[in-house]
Automatic annotation (TrEMBL):
GO terms for cellular component: membrane. It holds the Pfam family PTR2. GO terms for biological process: oligopeptide transport; protein transport. GO terms for molecular function: symporter activity. It comes from Larimichthys crocea (Large yellow croaker). The gene is PepT1. Keywords: Membrane, Peptide transport, Protein transport, Symport, Transmembrane, Transmembrane helix, Transport. Residues 683-702 have a biased composition (Basic and acidic residues). This is Oligopeptide transporter 1. It is found in: Membrane. Residues 683-726 are annotated as: Disordered. It comes from the Eukaryota. Belongs to the major facilitator superfamily. Proton-dependent oligopeptide transporter (POT/PTR) (TC 2.A.17) family. Signal peptide: none annotated. Its main location: membrane.
């Protein structure tokens, strides 16, 4: 860039290390905390705050992740072609920070009046604000991704190779530390209750802390400005490679007729414009990029840890005895296992394989990594099958389900359609009854009433005294598990006067006789419900797990102040019984697969390409991650399977198929030494330049002869070439 001068490092050196790297490492830690902390709770924010279903929440989540891995290409081009790394990091970090702040603001539901269940009235505003925030975050985090590590490397001189390698180790350690801490802390913040008018899960805090960390990251990076070694933009090699490939394709298409001689490689058609060394380097890169084609399928599975697997954890039991694990905290298993498995692989597994004299090439390692990820999804499917066994059978779109509660003081015989049940006073039947159409309801007599349940709904029919004969009131029940592993509790007041019920700082509202209260989500534990009749009160205690739903009957015979034995609990939805610990094997397999696949893949790609082409391979690698996430959102929206375990098996099957294709491609791959090839071209370069010079001299001689001949013989009968007027 014209007018941009390289600034020499002014950094103080301590123990051989420039102090400027401190600012870069702290910046990276805060930025990774910000990104992974926000991302950890994102899919639950979509499901429980924006009220999206699992498929749509998964789609938007993976669209966001795909954008985060597409924008690094844009960031690299901007940094290398125009702004330089420092300015690119600063400007896009500002965009990034604004995005995080917008996300935190979008989650504040008390800025307007909220509905009884805490759902904001102006949901469109919150959705629009969230989408703006996510776009800004994707642009920011993706844009600075290719710049920060490279900028850190720029702080070292050529004779500081050892210090530079140590810096990169510390740099990547800070990435994993930020990821680990954020996925532990932000779910805890989300689980807190906060709000002005209503108490809800605290998404503003869960997004606000990552926003604050991003502000810290930006400030720390700018503070170190005077100490950095800032290099001028040198031009983007990715753009140059794309132009070279584009010219080769265009030139080959232009000369597709048989009169032109065939060339050994399609890239050789770029020789008319580009030197042979660059073409040889591009050939090496293209050879590796061809192997990248099957890789997106691996990332399609790997990145579902933050979407499908987190949603799976919401239907599981997170009680580990000494601590309670939130569904989104299970994602911490991944960075913990990475920190443990990387040194084990490098210092134990790989050396052991080498001692056994097994030819475990990098491409074979990557194949094993893909196979391990497929196994992880098979395990996830087996876990899902066990979860499904404990899940209620909710009605289909053409069915209705109901449960009967007898609020009479005598035994009740109920005939509903083809069902016959007998209910003792103040009790309910154990299971929901399913109806495909309206039915006749008989209550202790031959007199019937026509009853109907809306299709796809679950209801409770409470039998109460009528003027002449028993009648019923119908109340809608939940058609899905309670949110976020909470327990949906409601009261039916069969007492003779209005009652007020509270649990902790939550209020069920005023419950008039023969009516049902609103549902309140109560966390796991020993819940104590305080019941008031205006002058007296009593306390009812209920032990709650994760994900259950109860209707608590207050009969007319309730006594004060001792009502523990009087209250009758009616189970609507069973608690989660499959433990979250069963997810650990699938996390272990996919993390082991990720370590073998990802680390080996980058090492392989870097060893098979020239040093100046490594940014191209990095861009291609990030592109495979983006495409992988696009595959997930496509399957989530297009191939909608009724059973989640079937979707897991589908992904596992696709990856096994891709794994076989990749193994076939790897079998025919020939490993090369890029440095050796470049050295050969370097030796040939003077001779090539000499030949090119002779060609140019010959062309100039012909041109001079033609021009001199024309000027010396103005009376020549030879026709002059056509002249174009300017």
């Amino acid at each position: 860039m014209e007018g941009y001068k390289e600034k020499k490092s002014k950094s103080i050196v301590i123990c051989g290390y420039p102090i400027s790297i401190f600012f870069i490492v702290v910046n990276e830690f805060c930025e990774r905390f910000s990104y992974y902390g926000m991302r950890a709770v994102l899919v639950l924010y979509f499901k429980y705050f924006l009220k999206w279903d699992d498929d749509f929440a998964t789609t938007i989540y993976h669209t966001f992740v795909a954008l985060c891995y597409l924008t690094p290409i844009l960031g690299a081009i901007v940094a290398d072609s125009w702004l330089g790394k420092f300015k690119t990091i600063v400007y896009l970090s500002i965009v990034y920070t604004l995005g995080q702040i917008v996300m935190a603001i979008s989650a504040i539901h008390d800025i307007t009046d909220a509905n009884r269940d805490g759902t904001p009235d102006n949901m469109t505003f919150h959705i629009a604000l969230s989408m703006v925030g996510l776009i800004l975050i994707a642009l920011g985090t993706g844009g600075i991704k290719p710049c920060v590590a490279a900028f850190g490397g720029d702080q070292f001189t050529d004779d500081q190779e050892k210090q530079r390698n140590t810096f990169f180790s510390i740099f990547y350690l800070s990435i994993n530390a930020g990821s680990l801490l954020s996925t532990v802390i932000t779910p805890i913040l989300r689980a807190q209750e906060c709000g002005i008018h209503t108490q809800q899960k605290c998404y503003p805090l869960a997004f606000g802390v990552p926003a604050a960390l991003m502000v810290v990251a930006l400030i720390v990076f700018i503070v170190g400005s005077g100490l950095y070694n800032k290099t001028a933009p040198q031009g983007n090699i990715l753009v140059k490679v794309c132009k070279c490939i584009g010219f080769a394709i265009k030139n080959r298409f232009r000369h597709r007729s048989s009169e032109y001689p065939r060339r050994d490689h399609w890239m050789d058609w770029a020789e008319e414009k580009y030197n042979k060394l660059l073409i040889a380097q591009v050939k090496m890169v293209v050879k590796v990029l061809f192997l990248y084609i099957p890789l997106p399928m691996f990332w399609a599975l790997f990145d579902q840890q933050g979407s499908r697997w987190t949603l799976q954890a919401t239907t599981m039991n997170g009680d580990f005895g000494f601590l309670i694990i939130q569904p989104d905290q299970m994602q911490t298993v991944n960075p913990i296992l990475i920190l443990a498995l990387v040194p084990i692989m490098d210092s134990l597994i790989y050396p052991l394989i080498n001692k056994c004299k097994l030819n475990f090439t990098p491409l074979k390692r990557m194949t094993v990594g893909m196979f391990l990820a497929a196994l992880a999804f098979i395990v996830a499917a087996l876990v899902q099958i066990q979860i499904d066994k404990t899940m209620p059978q909710f009605p289909s779109s053409k069915q209705g389900q109901t449960k009967f509660i007898n609020m009479l003081d005598t035994q009740l015989n109920v005939k509903a359609g083809h069902y016959n049940i007998t209910l003792s006073p103040y009790t309910a039947n154990a299971d929901y009854l399913t109806f495909d159409e309206p039915f006749e309801l008989f209550l202790n007599s031959n007199t019937s009433v026509q009853a109907d349940i809306p299709d796809g709904n679950r209801t409770t029919m409470v039998i109460i005294k009528g003027l002449v004969s028993p009648t019923y009131k119908q109340f809608r029940d939940l058609e899905s598990k309670p949110e976020e592993g909470g327990n949906a509790i409601r009261f039916f007041n069969g007492f003779g006067s209005a009652l007020n019920v509270t649990v902790g700082d939550q209020n069920f509202g005023k419950i008039v006789p023969n009516n049902m209260s609103e549902r309140v989500l109560v966390p796991r534990g020993n819940a104590q419900f305080r019941i008031f009749d205006g002058t007296r009160e009593c306390t009812y205690t209920q032990e709650l797990g994760f994900g259950s739903s109860y209707t608590l009957i207050i009969p007319p015979t309730v006594t004060f102040p001792q009502c523990q034995e009087s209250i009758r609990p009616v189970l609507n939805i069973e608690r989660n019984t499959v433990h979250m610990a069963w997810q650990i094997p699938q996390y272990f397999l996919i993390t082991a697969g990720g370590v073998v696949f990802s680390v080996t893949g980058l090492e392989f790609a870097y060893s098979q390409a020239p040093s100046n082409m490594k940014p191209v391979l990095q861009a291609g690698w990030l592109l495979t991650v983006a495409v992988g996430n696009i595959i997930v959102l496509t399957i989530a929206e297009v191939i909608k399977l009724d059973d989640q375990w079937a979707e897991y098996i589908l992904f596992a099957s696709l990856l096994i198929l891709v794994c076989i294709i990749f193994a076939f491609m790897a079998h025919f791959y020939t490993y090369i030494d890029p440095a050796k090839i470049e050295a050969e071209f370097a030796e040939k370069e003077p001779e090539e330049k000499k030949k090119e010079s002779l060609k140019m001299d010959k062309k100039d001689s012909v041109k001079n002869f033609y021009e001199n001949g024309k000027n010396s013989d103005s009376s020549s009968d030879e026709e002059e070439p056509n002249q174009t007027k300017m």
